[in-house]
């Protein structure tokens, strides 16, 4: 779904979901507390709080969610502990390239970093800082003229500071990372986040599409049936080329094994590629509910996807046909959209979503 830019800017600037709950005189009388300036509150019932992302961090698991909530588990999701987080911004995605070093991204343009396996976090970047520094970086002397389109989009994106979220983050190793988000917003680091620079010019034919998720093979799920794939731009520059797929709606995620990539999203559409995103064909599925989370099973054993009504879909290695698994669906909180999936090993997964986080056993043949 394409969000109106002005609506998104106003929504984020006034506190998102928290502001939406106020109305009329109450809204006008409310005192705005900038989520960038306050650490996350302490919560109980951690596994029942809205959570968007979950990932393995060595032998632990780390999940992130609304109002700066970060939790971690050392016993495969049986118990959870809240981590220290310096902001109350909504957090959307998390990545750990190594057991100790991790990054989180979310609303207000925040990028957080952990050095201790997710127990505590520090802020590396936010939208206020990037609004001041990113435009100056692109306008610096000696920059090639071919970044003019990305400069115009960047100027529009930072017009209201801390307004746009980063939706996904991926680190190739402990130094090199990419964060992407709404309206083509992108930032890159080559030094473990000590410095972040704008990366909008890396996307050829920049159209300002929402960049929703980065896959483990660096394919990026976007809007309007587009998937961005890494391309060789020469001169050591990072570059992504937009590839049109047979679908027309948004893709919300990418999963891949050693031979197949699948992109999934709006109305349950699933596309598959066997050439690292150069060409795509549609997979078959009997569900038309939007799919927000998915992963590849270990050892090329197929794919698991979860849609917005809690149906669990499974495909074998080649990702051509996805069938609904009946048993796990009964265990899910129906009607509560998922955010992410993490593999526990064997036939168990952790699923995060607006209803919290839960462990699900897969009934695979």
Neighbour order of strands in the largest sheet: 21-25-24-23-22
User: Which whole number gives the mean pLDDT?
Assistant: 87
Bulk shape: globular
Helix content: 10-25%
Describe the fold and architecture.
The structure is a single chain. The chain is mostly beta strands and 365 residues long. It has 6 helices and 28 strands. A 5-stranded mixed β-sheet has the order 21-25-24-23-22. Strands 1-2-3-4 form a 4-stranded antiparallel β-sheet, with no helix packed on it. A 4-stranded antiparallel β-sheet has the order 5-6-7-8. Strand 7 and strand 8 (122-125) form a beta hairpin. The longest helix is centred in the middle third of the chain and has 12 residues, at 127-138. It starts with a helix and ends with a strand. Residues 1-24 have low confidence and may be disordered.
What would a concise description of this structure say?
This protein has helices spanning 5-13, 17-20, 24-29, 127-138, 148-157, 326-331; strands spanning 51-57, 60-65, 70-73, 81-82, 91-95, 102-106, 111-114, 122-125, 166-171, 177-181, 186-189, 197-198, 211-214, 220-222, 226-230, 240-244, 251-256, 261-265, 270-273, 281-282, 284-285, 291-296, 303-307, 312-315, 321-325, 338-345, 348-353, 356-361.
